[in-house]
Structure formats: structure tokens, C-alpha cells
Amino acid sequence: MIIHGIGLDTSAKVAFQSHAHTDHFVNGDVIFSTRATKFLSHLKKGGFYKAVPFGKGFYIGDYKAKLYPAGHMLGSAQIYVEFDEFSLLYTGDVKWFKLRTAEKSRFRRADVLIIEATFGVPMYNFPSPKGVEKGLVAFVESSLDRGKTPTIYANQIGKAQEILKILEVHGYSVRTSRNIIKVAKIYEKFGIKFKNIDKDGEVLLREFRVPKVGNFLSELYVSGFGNLKLSNHADFWELMKIVEKVRPEKIYTVYGYAKEFAKILRGFGYDADPLHTGVGLGKL
Ligand SMILES: [Zn+2]
């Protein structure tokens, strides 16, 4: 979406890119992001990125802005912008609970909230991060007990590094792909070290692909939609906590269950509407 000329995860002359997942990549004369997002994006694309630290005031176009951690992956950011008529918080992809390899998210009050709704219906109620880790360890142990190589599929950027870190904490060595290692090397520049990458590792970590039916005994697909619910997105209940924290007068929902989530929010008394990406904020 483009608001008062500022592209939010949308290409524009002046744009903000919330994080380094390819579906959020943007182009522009200048792209504001965190330093980690800039480095990670440069693995796959060019572009002039202006890196801004969390919590430091800066101007995006003519407007005062600040970035806040979104907790979705290393460097993922929300942007707070003071437009003339209203303040805006755009979450990008966001997580309430702290992940091991992402900065802890922080939320602030704003007049208008644009929030993602990837898992914006109540059936998405993910287990706690501790519970998910237990599930991961149980899978690895049962595969090893059966003499099988535990094989885990995860998104190459963000999720794979989170899995690596969890496996390291639980004492497992991991063999993985060059692409996942390339991303991990950038994480290391930002202080998140991985000591368990080993070409003879006991666990195999691979880039996500479409699950092959019938292989679920020794293969694990890590996604809010997969068979291990380790998600770097907020589930429905986390989204509700974020909304309560921001206390916005107006909410726009984007991505995933945008329509359904807006309807639920209206049921709770919020002024909420889905926003189709690429469309402005109407009268705002
Ligand atoms: Zn993402």
C-alpha cells in the first residue's frame, strides 16, 4: 500500500521494507529498512537501502518516523509514521512471542493500525514456543531411535535459522544447504552465532518445499500451516493482544484472513476494515 506517497512493503519512490522475505521486497529510489534487512535482501536483490536503527527518529519523505522490532525474523520492523492528520503503525509480518533469533517485538499506541492477518481467525491458536520446541525434539529423537535421519523443511530465511538455533540449544548437530548457511552467516554478523552446523550433522535441515504425502514419519514441515506449528507470525490470539496494546481508532487488516479478521474485530467494537494492498486509505 502507498500512503501519502510512502510505499509500505510496496514499491514507490520512497519506500519502507519491513523484512527480508521475498514477498515483501520492494523497489524505490530509496528503501528504508533495518541494517539486517538490507544485508539479507542484498543476498537476492539490489537497491539503495537506507538502514535505520530501531527506536531512532528519522524522516521518511516529509514525515517523522520510527522503526520498532516486529519479532518476525532478524531485522523485521514495524514503522510508526506521524502524518499530518494521524499517526500510523504498520506491523509488516509480526510476532508477539519472542523467537530465539529475532528481536523481541515492541508495540506503541497509534491512531491508525495496519496489521497483518495471515492467521487472523481463532482456529489458529499455536502452542507456546516452549511447547513447539518439545515437539521438535520429540520428532528428532523418535526419528533417530528408528535409525532414520530426521529431515526438517523450513523457509530458507528466518525459519531455518530459528530451527538451527533451537537444535543447537538442545545439543544437535545439523547438516544443511549452502543457501541456509549463507543466511546464517549474516545472522552471525548481528551476533546470532551457530555452532552446530556440520556436514556430518545428525539432523538434516532443508529448504521448504511442498510436502510429499506419506513421508511424515521422518519429515517435518515447519510452518503455521505445516505439521510443526512453529510460526514466526502471530496467531489469532497474539494479533488480538497487539491490537489491545496499540489501542487504535481505526484498524486496517492486510494479507491472509484480512476480511475475516476485520469482521471479528468489528464484533469486538473496533472500527476495522480489510485493506487491499496497492489501495490507499480512502478518506485518510
Ligand atoms: Zn515474512
From TrEMBL:
Gene3D superfamilies registered for this protein in UniProt: Ribonuclease Z/Hydroxyacylglutathione hydrolase-like
MF terms in GO: hydrolase activity; RNA endonuclease activity
Keyword tags: Hydrolase
Name of the featured protein: MBL fold metallo-hydrolase
Organism: Thermococcus paralvinellae
